[in-house]
C-alpha cells in the first residue's frame, strides 16, 4: 500500500533539511518543517490525504508527531560526526521550555538515539570520507538500536527510496 507521509528526523539540522528537501522534490510531496510540538497543521494535512515530507527540527519530540503522521520515518545521520553526536551530553535547550512541567531539557545524545530507534529507514549521508571500519561500526550500532530498520549509505533520496525495500511511496518519480 502506498504511504502518504514521510517524516524525516535527525540531529544534524543542515543534512536533515537538505535530505528532506530532496525527498520532497523526488516524490512530488509538499515539504513541511515542524518547529514546535503543535500538530494542528499536520492533522489538517493528513486528514485531507495530502502527501507530505515532514522535517522535524531537532528539538521536536517525534512521538506525538508520529502518532499523527504515521507512515514512514527516515532518520538522516551525518556519518562525519555520528559518534560525536552520540557522546554529546549538551542539552538541546539551555533551560526548560515555558509550559514544560517536567523541566526536561534533554541531551543531544538522547535525541540522536531516539531518532535512530524510531526510524523505518536510517540513511547515512556524508559517508565517503569515513573508513570502512567506522562505517561498519556505525551500521552495527544503528542496527543494534533499531533491528527492524533498513540502513543505507545514501546515494540520493530517490535512489535510497527505490533501494530501501519499503513500500512504494505515492508520487515516486520514475525518471
Task: Summarize the structure in words.
It is a single chain. The chain has seven helices and six strands; from the N terminus they run E-H-E-H-E-H-E-H-H-E-H-E-H. The mean pLDDT is 82. Helix 6 (132-145) links the parallel strand 5 and strand 6. Helix content is 39%, strand content 18%. Strands 2-3-1-4-5-6 form a six-stranded parallel beta sheet, sandwiched between helices. The protein is globular and about 45 Å long. It has 175 residues and is of the alpha/beta class. It has helices spanning 13-27, 40-47, 62-69, 82-87, 108-117, 132-145, 157-163; strands at residues 5-9, 30-34, 52-56, 72-78, 121-125, 150-153. The protein starts with a strand and ends in a 12-residue tail after the last helix.
What keyword list fits this structure?
175 residues, alpha/beta, six-stranded parallel sheet, globular, 6 strands, 18% strand
Percent of sequence in beta strands: 15-25%
Number of helices: 7
Helix-strand pattern, N to C? EHEHEHEHHEHEH
Quaternary state of this entry equals single chain
- Measured as a percent range, the helix fraction is 25-40%
Order of adjacent strands in the largest pleated sheet = 2-3-1-4-5-6
